[in-house]
Amino acid sequence: MKRKLFRFEKMWLEQPECRSVVKDSWDTPVNCLGAAEVLSTKLRRLRRALRRWEQGSFWSVHNIKRQAKMDVDVLEMRQEERDLTQDELQELQNLRPRIHQIFLKGGNHVEPNS
Asked: Around Cβ 21, how many Cβ atoms within 10 Å?
């Protein structure tokens, strides 16, 4: 089974807990001799710590992106079937820039319309 590539999400920096996850992981002593081995071990440990933290967070970046995209898709489908209400139009106008911002902050090279 191929392992998923780790990507650091810029959005994590906005969460106060992220700093402590990084600090706790990095400050834990490593029983290695060479500097390269120490660095490799710390980076591997940090990757695991950040994955565990992100997966346990209610605001998971993946979930935020997916939900925002789904909200726009639903409104756009309604718009194809009928005229949107003023509230729905306002929501759609608010969601589009939000999605753009989420995808920019997320640090991934994923297009919002894909």
From this structure: 17
Low-confidence ranges of the chain (pLDDT < 70): 1-2, 57-62, 102-114
Spell out the residues 6+ positions from residue 68 whose beta carbon is closer than 8 angstroms to its own.
95, 98, 99, 102
Q: Are 6 and 47 spatial neighbours (Cβ–Cβ below 8 Å)?
A: yes
Query: For position 109, what pLDDT does the model report?
Result: 36
CA distance 47 to 30: 15
Only one residue has tokens 């290695």, namely: 32
Which residues are within 8 A (CB) of 47 and not within 5 positions of it... i.e. 6 or more apart?
6
Rounded to whole angstroms, what are the CA distances from 56 to 24, 49, 59? Answer: 17, 11, 9
* Residue written as token pair 């789904």: 70
Distance CA 99, CA 110 (A): 11
